[in-house]
Structures are given as C-alpha cells and as structure tokens.
Amino acid sequence: MLSLPKQLCKLQNLQTLDLHDCDSLCCLPKETSKLGSLRNLLLDGCYGLTCMPPRIGSLTCLKTLGCFAVGRKKSSQIGELRNLNLYGSIEITHLERVKNEMDAKEANLSAKENLHSLSMKWDDDDRYESEEVEVLEALKPHSNLTCLKINGFRGICLPDWMNHSVLKNVVSIVIKDCENCSCLPPFGELPCLESLELRTGSAELEYVDSGFPTRRRFPSLRKLILYSFYNLKGLLKEEGEEQFHVLEEMTIDGCPMFVIPTLSSVKKLVAHGDKLDAIGFSSISNLRALTSLHIIEATSLPEEMFKNLANLKYLKISYYYNRKELPSSLTSLNALENLRIECCGALESLPEEGLEGLTSLSKLSVYECEMLKCLPEGLQHLTALTNLSVRYCPTLAKRCEKGIGEDWYKIAHIPNVFIS
What is the residue range of 420's domain? Predict the structure, then answer.
C-alpha cells in the first residue's frame, strides 16, 4: 500500500488510525489535518514515509505519533510538532531537511515531558552538515526521556545536552552511523543507563569513555554493543579500579584493536572475529564469570583462550573457516553444557583430550562441517550427554549410521541422536 484513500479524511470522529508496519506507505492524505478527533496516529515501522501531510500540528488532540518525517515545505517542517502534547515514543526522520538551529527549536522537544522514547534520523539526501551540530543541540529533549537513538548524524561532535542533567533518566542509548564524531559524551556518568549500543562510528575513536578513573563509571550498565570501530582500543582510557560493576552482556563486532579488560560481572559475550586479532581473543579469558560465548568468523583462536572460563555453560563457534582444529584448552570447560559448532568448513577433527574434559556436556551440535572426518573416542565417556545433532556433515553422518557406522559405538549411549 503506497497511499491511503482521501475519503479517509471525512471520518470526523476517528480517534485511532493504525498504520503500524505499513513499510510501503510513502505518504498520508493531504487533508489528514481535518481529522480533528484523532488521538493516535500509529506510524511505527512506516519506513517508506517521505514527509508528513500539511499542518499536522493542528491536530491538537493527537497524543501518539509513532513517526514524523520532516518535509521540505514549511507546512510539513519540524515546527509542526511544536503544539503537540505527545506521549510514548516517536521517530523523527529526514532531519537533513532541517536547515538551521532556529527551525529545530520550533519542534519544542524540551517541553514534551510525556515523550519517553526519541529516535532522530538523518538520511542521505542533500545535507546541511555544517549546521547539524547546532540542529541537534536545539533538539534537546525533556529530562523525562528514557530511550534515545541517534542515526546518521554527520556533525563532528554530539550535543552538550547529552550529559547527566538532561539524560538523568535514560536507560537505553543507540548511536549509529555518526562517523564524524571522534569523541563521545560522558555516558559513564549517566546514573540509569542500562543499555548502550554504538554502531559504525569514527575511525578516530579509541575509547568508549575518557573520564577520570577515580569516579565510578557506568554504574547501571548491563548491556553493551560495539560495532565497526576500527581503532577502538578499549572501554576506558585510564584503567583505575574495575568499572562496569553490573555489566552482563557484550557484543564486539568489527573492532580489530579492541582488548577486553577484566570484568567480573560479564556473563554473555558475542565476539565477531573477522577482524578481531589474537590479542582480542586472548583477552576473553579476563571474563571469568562468563556463562555464554558465541565466536563468529574467527581467523585464529589462541590455544589457551578457554583456560580461565570455569563458569562457561554455552559455547558456539561458527564460520571458523581456516583452521583444521579447535584449541585444546576446551578440556578446561568442565561446566560446559551446550556446545555448538557450525559452518567450520576446514575443521577436520575435534580435540580428543578437549571433549573428555567436558564432563557436564549435555548437548552437542555439529552443523555444516564438511571436512570433519570422525568423532573423538572420548565422546563415549561423556555420561551427561543426552543430545547429539549432526547435520550437513556427509562423512561424519555416514560414520554415525545406527548400528553399522564406524563411529556408532561412540554415540550409542546417547538417548537423542539426530543425523541428517
């Protein structure tokens, strides 16, 4: 559906118009402003919306507006938000069409105390990059905000309002495709911040936080995602006493220089290793409380990387293309319950001594490892193993045929075996 029938605008008593996830919708009827009783205009997921209809700001009963696409004409500019007392969440798109600070102030975002989630997005049309810092500065939200997302901003620095006083209640921040920002605001000082996602940033950024190590940083942060920062070296520029006291989940992707510090609380890690070097993988051993680890596209894994992970219960290794063997330190994972090995095209064998040490292992899955020739002898001694799945491993599947396969005696004791 590209558009709506104009007859819709004759429904004078209409209070809710739900267009949720109409991603092909490019425009609303020009006379939408005649829907004077409209309270909820649900536009979440309407990613194709190119601009708002004229004078939408006259809908003073409107409380929910999932998306506002800034138009080029004055009647559909960002100032139409000024008199709307909005609740909940809103995504403002096409902010590249806001030409200056004065136009941005017309949105009056700082007065919208009932707006709890704000997403601001710049697209790749004509840009006023020299004005973008001032524009974003003028889009300061109310201090009641709890979720903030900034996408596609091309200014050289993020605004001054991204500090303790304005974002004191924020629990989630996403900064995406802000490639000119060579430094970040002091996110570590935000008392309620629980989730921080930084994606595709400046190649000049070296640390997530450059604050004083004597202060407690990130007191509430539980989830951290870092994606595509090619020179990012670490979390804190100055390492004092351990910070990130409640951090539980981390995802590291496209950060080849990154070294993981000692973090006693992290339990879940996803490490995308197509660019993460051996030092980065070795530093995983600093996460001694780790219970879940997913390694993707590693080019090499240090032999001793699993040695200190005594609490690890779930391990997934996928797209480990170039190596014939896994690290022998697998043997130290006595608490491991679930091991998944997927799409490791060069893998020829599993470590004999490694699997014998996996005394808690209950699930083993091997998927699309075409070169894997056989299962290790030690598998038959893993009495806790109750589920074995082998898929798209032709040589291995043949050896595991029930009753007649060369490896059947190694797995005959396992209650649930799936071979395909």
Answer: 267-420
